[in-house]
Amino acid sequence: MKVLIVTPEITYVPREMAGSSPNLSAKAGGLGDVSASLVSALFRMGADVHVALPHYRRMFHTGIADVMEEKRRRYYEELDDTCRIHLAEDRTFYYRESVYDRNNEESLKMSLTFQREVINHIIMEVRPDLIHCNDWMTGLIPAFARSMGIPSLFTVHNIHTQWATLEQIENAGIDTALFWENLYYERQPVNYEETRSGNRVDLLTSGIFGAHFINTVSPTFLKEIVDNRHAFVPPQIQTQIANKYHAGCAAGILNSPDPHYNSSTDDFLLRKFGPADVVEGKRQNKLALQEALGLTCNPNAPILFWPSRLDPVQKGPQLLTDILYAIIHDYWDDQLQLAIVADGPFQQYFVDIMRQHHLEDRIGVHCFNERLSHIGYAASDFVLMPSRFEPCGLPQMIGPLYGSLPIVHDTGGLHDTVEHLNLEADTGNGFVFKYYDAPGLRWAIDEAMRFYHAPQARREAVIARVMREASSRFTHQVTANEYIRIYERMLQRPLIAGEGASAAES
């Protein structure tokens, strides 16, 4: 039984699965991590999983000679039947430096070219039993799959879409005559001829509309969309997701951090550690972070860590700037510090506050750096995620793996992964505020500092518990099992040969 996962980006594929293919890594965001984790977990569980993605030659570090050698090898050794990685070939992809383009027209061109290759060649080559598509860049494929009688799952990672007419789609080499009725249009279509050039197709909504089953990347974000709680979700997307939900054809599946986020094996850390030696491990990494950011070197100073992009539309950095001077002042004797390792339009505001009040020893701001970000998780005591909305989020899951407790707004994936700490009952893994405003964030930070002042032995026991729970809860295996459960429900049979029960239940 074959599953074809169609994705515009992926962080890695298992070496055994890639065979002699180049080192495949093309990532723009969380979708690349999710695709990689799902493919890896399914493959290691024995599923017949295949991947379709664009052939980004430059990002894959391959030259023309390498490409031609691979083509010759495939031709003479007849490896097509065993190949699991299917690269969409076109010059549009070959020399790109990134997955997406700031130019919407260029991104649309890439999307249509990718889907042309998947529809015209890869699906026919693989002959899958089920197709799993991801985001607007694959939005036409569920409609095609429906016309072919192939079940399809469509995963909504982000609420972003693009539009194209049937004429544009056909000019890109995709014959829509067979499946145009399964697409979603700007207005109700009258007939093919009338629709072809004057009625645009919504690519994300088409993916939702055409798929047999959909999922978002957290259960709560799905329910928030269905309940129409977010004004930024376009009405047609909200309606189609709600329709799938009420038809019993929608689910929320949490993403999970990549396995390299592991405090006991992370090579970026100055000292690796686990629940048993978390105190000493965090002390050494804290000193390294403080030195790197120019903060006062004090292993006992509590550190708030901001790891995600400084985006005021979604991530809520303005809530922190509103109260930053006050919390630094109020916790001056504790030597409270703020460490930011992130890019984004709001970064300058933190720099201005730091310089205006001469707080360079208490506030450190650094552009995103992979190594420093890992050290930030290991060094900090609390991770800040005061997002206005959050389809899933990963930092609030990564932080507990390193003994850094999250401070979050109660929304979307944050609601599904963080429970407010109850010291007396020894439950919870972070600090949750209900109302999206600066006073709400201030309350949660105060709660975190109240925990910081708890007896050291009690605090260490709680952190060790949170680390252990996170390492068993936030894993690729858990995420993969949820997708397998959906695959098996759609196919009405076990996914992996020889297993009489769902792998998700084993």
Written overview of the protein:
43% of the residues lie in helices and 12% in strands. It is α/β, with parallel strands linked by helices and 506 residues long. The protein has 20 helices and 15 strands. The longest helix is centred in the N-terminal third of the chain and has 23 residues, at 104-126.
Q: How much of the residues is beta strand, in percent?
A: 5-15%
Separation of termini?
Answer: 19 Å
Tally of helical runs:
20
Secondary-structure-based class equals alpha/beta
Contiguous low-pLDDT stretches (5 residues minimum) are 75-81, 500-506
Q: What share of residues is helical?
A: 40-55%
Mean pLDDT: 89
Largest sheet: 7 strands, parallel
Overall geometric form: elongated
Please give the radius of gyration in angstroms: 24 Å
How many beta-strand segments? 15
Chain-wise SSE layout:
Elements: E1 2-6, H1 15-18, H2 30-44, E2 48-54, H3 64-77, E3 85-88, H4 91-94, H5 104-126, E4 130-134, H6 141-148, E5 152-156, E6 163-164, H7 166-171, H8 192-196, E7 201-202, H9 203-210, E8 213-216, H10 219-226, H11 235-246, E9 250-252, H12 278-293, E10 303-306, H13 317-330, E11 337-341, H14 347-356, E12 363-366, H15 370-379, E13 382-385, H16 395-401, E14 405-409, H17 412-417, E15 431-433, H18 438-452, H19 456-473, H20 476-491
Parallel strand pairs: 1-2, 1-4, 2-3, 4-5, 5-8, 8-9, 10-11, 10-13, 11-12, 13-14, 14-15
Antiparallel strand pairs: 6-7
Helix pairs in contact: 2-20, 6-9, 9-11, 12-15, 13-18, 16-19
